[in-house]
Amino acid sequence: MDFAEVVSDPDTWKLVAVLSLGIFVQAAAGFAAGLLIVPLLLWAGYTIPEAQTSLLVATVPQNIWGVISFRDSLEGKRLIAPGAARLLFLPVGVLTLQWMESFSVMTLRQVVGAAVLLATIANLFFRPTPRKSVAAFWGFLAFPLSGFMQGLVGMGGPPMVLWVQAHDWDTRRSRGFLFSMYLISLAPGIAVLVWFFGARVIPPALIAGAAIPILLVVTWAGLRVGTALGTERLRRVTMALLLLMGLAGLAAPWLTPPT
């Protein structure tokens, strides 16, 4: 398929539209890119590996910007163990995903819907009390789980976010840490997906890369909207949307007309 065919292909613009929506919400509300993008692309006809790869490529500029912006709040030593734990368990998640690809599309939609629903409910109801330090057990749980979920369904953020919320860190330190964790796993995540799933994940990744100028404009717009409307109001709207998407994923066999 040449460049003109790619540009004229409706699937190309489906992918760009979904990535734009996820990146916009991420910029405006501060979270939820993966929770939105992966299930929407699955409903649009893409596979989970294709959705994951395009998501990782699409978030490269945002994460680089985040690390540069908050570099003065980063502590290099605190990034090593969490980053290593995520990277260690990421291939385990991808290997499990490879096994899961034998499942039907409906079952995969239900798995992703359940993941979105659980992550949203945890974010809504689990509000840890911030403290200076957290027991090491929670780190041993959060970061391997984050790496596994990243490899499995492209949603590794929620365990890390909850771990960060349990600390009495200011906004700059919290966001800098999360951006660093995402950035550390981007290149290895893409490499592992290509290794396990081959050439079929490359076209969506290339389209996502070509769409980066659009996504930068979307990021700028999302930041402005988030500032104008307020993060908490957008958070409530986003949570409602995620709950709806999670329930839709679980109900996929009943929502999809028979062929």
UniProtKB/TrEMBL annotation:
Localization per Swiss-Prot or TrEMBL: Cell membrane
Q: Which InterPro entries match?
A: TM_pro_TauE-like, TSUP
Q: Name the UniProt key words of this record, in alphabetical order.
A: Cell membrane, Membrane, Transmembrane, Transmembrane helix, Transport
**Predominant localisation class:** membrane
* Topological type in the membrane: Multi-pass membrane protein
Q: Where are the transmembrane segments?
A: 21-46, 79-100, 107-126, 138-164, 176-198, 204-225, 237-256
- Family membership noted in the UniProt record: Belongs to the 4-toluene sulfonate uptake permease (TSUP) (TC 2.A.102) family.
Q: What is this protein's name?
A: Probable membrane transporter protein
Q: Where is the organism placed in the taxonomic lineage, from the top? A: Bacteria, Pseudomonadati, Planctomycetota, Planctomycetia, Pirellulales
